[in-house]
Amino acid sequence: MKDRRSGKAIFRELSGLVTEQRNPRSRRLDQLSTPQVLRLMNREDSRVPRAVAREVPKISKAVDLIVERLLRGGRLFYVGAGTSGRLGVLDAAECPPTFGTPRTLVQGIIAGGRRALVRSVEGAEDDPRAAAAALRKRKVGAKDIVVGIMASRRTPYALGAIAYGRKVGAATIAVTANPAGGIPGCDVVIAPRVGPEVLTGSTRLKSGTAQKLVLNMLSTATMVRLGKVYKNLMVDLRTASRKLEERTKRVLMHATGARYEETDRLLKGAGGSLKVAIVMRRAGITRPEAVRRLKEAQGWVRRAIRG
Question: What CA–CA distance (Å, rounded) separates 89 from 30?
């Protein structure tokens, strides 16, 4: 069911949102030269990392919650509309090649479906039941995590996802750019206060940048905590392209000190597994022993090397 409230009620709601206010620093935007417009946008963008930094305690709580659920066999769902939904789909799509995760582990759901990724489907954001139906179709349950992404804090689609997540016992997280007020049923609310946009109400700007930074932190920190990283190296990446094949070799060289000419042999001896190759080389052990150690270490390379 779509939002049936009167236009005046929605108008009043939007009028109270930080992201809908006019930015006093950009009131002369249409009178500025091109360099002046760009410098103004750059100054405003510089406020975003500081706003995100103030939310680190909440982001940390969210990461711990995600890790706990994933270790229990759960999945992570990003749900949003418009720019927010596209950012969620983007972050989810990058997890398999970067961290070697199954495609079902981190999933992005956008209001309006696949076509909304490349074409605006604005009315889709008003239907909370559609979000619930999308999660129901994926059999979301108590082991899972639902992250509602919305600049405005009032997007019906994202709120519908959070409400459904709570109903089935999933962990629920909200990522928004409007900090005032709570979100019913949400375990963690992450709300960087980025302030009014340079272009009034265009939340693809600072609000979208803040959401991207938060999602980067959620997924990357989660994968670090799951043992997908050794030092600062990606050790579970998939070699699905020539670029990634060469990156895998570079990681192996950085992790073990091996020469480029050795990498093909080392990877072949490890059955193509970068993690196994690193443990074999660093610990001086056989492939079966490296596999055993990694299993006992729950995939953590550093622990497996120490034995």
Answer: 33
User: Which two tokens mark 36?
Assistant: 């002046």
Two structure tokens written together for 212: 């991207």
Of the candidates 238, 163, 176, the residue with the CA atom closest to the CA atom of residue 206 = 176
Number of H helices, E strands in the chain: 13, 7
Each residue of 157-186: pLDDT tens digit?
999 999 999 999 999 999 999 886 778 889
pTM tops 0.70, yes or no:
yes
Kindly list the strands in the beta sheet with 145-149, ordered across the sheet, starting from the edge strand earlier in the chain.
106-110, 76-80, 145-149, 171-175, 188-190
* Domain 229-306 sits in CATH 1.10.8.1080: yes
Name the residues annotated as catalytic.
94, 125
> Any residues with CB less than 8 A from the CB of 307 and at least 6 apart, and which?
283, 293
User: What digits encode the pLDDT tens for the residues 14-27?
Assistant: 666 888 889 999 99
The upper half-sphere exposure of residue 193, i.e. CA atoms within 13 Å in the direction of its Cβ, equals: 6
What is the residue extent of each domain of the chain?
10-225, 229-306
* Strand partners for 190: 175
CATH code at 10-225: 3.40.50.10490
Confidence of residue 105 (pLDDT cuts 50, 70, 90): very high
